[in-house]
Amino acid sequence: MATDRPRALVSGASVAGPVLAYWLERFGYVPTVVERTPEVRMGTGGHAVDLFGPAVELMDWMGLEGQVESARTVTRVFSFIRPGRPPVDVSAETASEGVSSRHVEIMRGDLARILHEAARHRVEYVFDDSVAAVHDAGPRVEVTFERSAAREFDVVVGADGLHSTTRRLVFGPEAEFLRFLGGYLAVFTAPDHLRLGDRMVAFSAPGRTAAMYPVRETGQARVVLLWRTPVPHDVARHDVDAQRGLIRSRYGDLGWELPRLLAALDQADDLYLDSISQVVMDSWVRGRVGLVGDAGYSPGPAVGGGTSLAVIGAYMLATELASAGDPVRALDRYQQAMRPVVAHSRNIGPTVMKFLVPRSAAQIWLTAQAMRVLPHVPDPLRRRLTSFGGSAAAMLREARLRRPEEVPLARPSPS
Ligand SMILES: Cc1cc2nc3c(=O)[nH]c(=O)nc-3n(C[C@H](O)[C@H](O)[C@H](O)COP(=O)(O)OP(=O)(O)OC[C@H]3O[C@@H](n4cnc5c(N)ncnc54)[C@H](O)[C@@H]3O)c2cc1C
Q1: Which of 58, 148, 285, 303 is buried most deeply by CB count within 10 Å?
Q2: Residues 330-349: tens digit of each pLDDT
Q3: Residue 306 in contact with residue 342, Cβ under 8 Å?
């Protein structure tokens, strides 16, 4: 059926993409989401991610609080392993107190499924496809796809992650925008041989950390390895054998549970390995094309609050597209509103890395002592100690979200 409602293309159906599409539809747009994978990532796949403060509130506004709550991970305690001594335990709630009083940890697969479910009856989804070329011909953007027929949209948004195709096609090669934070991250699945229950366990040696957390109702655990290196490794993103070799060379002598975990690595079919890098762009909008979430301003995987940032950014973009009339002006206003939020987010990763991957034996000792005293110190000090330098709370504070009922509906697009 013909419509004069403005049309938006959203590339990527993980976190930012479905949140944006959901709100755009509610605010009067006709969104189409294109996703490269053949179907939405389901169930407990991927890694655990965090929703803090306003990102949790947005789930409430979408009516998803019950679903998100019942899918949250079972991790309730962080256990810091010390060789020859009892572990130091701290509750997950205490550990994130200085960031926000509202926090939900959830597997990314679960979150993506819930978000997709919320939007799919009112939003067109195209799986197993990708944008191939984007031409901003104003007042329409012409898009060609790898499989589907070419189409025109009023606005195009890349929500396609750290290695965004939209960014490469419209803004330039990835290398121009990635800022290496001096570390690597690997995640894979292993049997939960420690029967972790509600515990996440972590073991550190100078410059290297290994951690494990349980995956609800699967009998499996996710293994997370984080290590420091001054320069990026020369290992291709899809060369799994080379990646396994790299991990063995880094962790073969670590001790603790590593022999069993490295044996599990050989069986794992879901190894993820990447540098810990941020996306730093002077501008993440151009004409009628914009980027949202990791594609435009990833604060670094596993260290920077990227999921909350993606949810917040997607909502802010939807509100501007609804209220600014012209998409070019809307994208510009979205970028202005997000700048202070993004600026704070860039400080989170380097601070969190100091804690997650201590550089020296002295820092490991200090981390353990800080965790040990945490439950016993006065509230303000505890909040300071768990604020990771205050950047995460500052990022959330800068996110000024208009309530949905305050957002006007988008005007019809000019023919
Ligand atoms: C190992 C790991 C651990 C992490 N841990 C945490 C954590 O503890 N807490 C936290 O808050 N965040 C964490 N993050 C970061 C978090 O996952 C991201 O910040 C968040 O998922 C960003 O959402 P997004 O929608 O912007 O991008 P993504 O979740 O990366 O989604 C991008 C989507 O785009 C799709 N796509 C890619 N290319 C194309 C294409 N050409 N066409 C169509 N679709 C495409 C992808 O398939 C995917 O569905 C972690 C990340 C990683 C990798």
Answers
A1: 285
A2: 999 999 999 999 999 999 99
A3: no
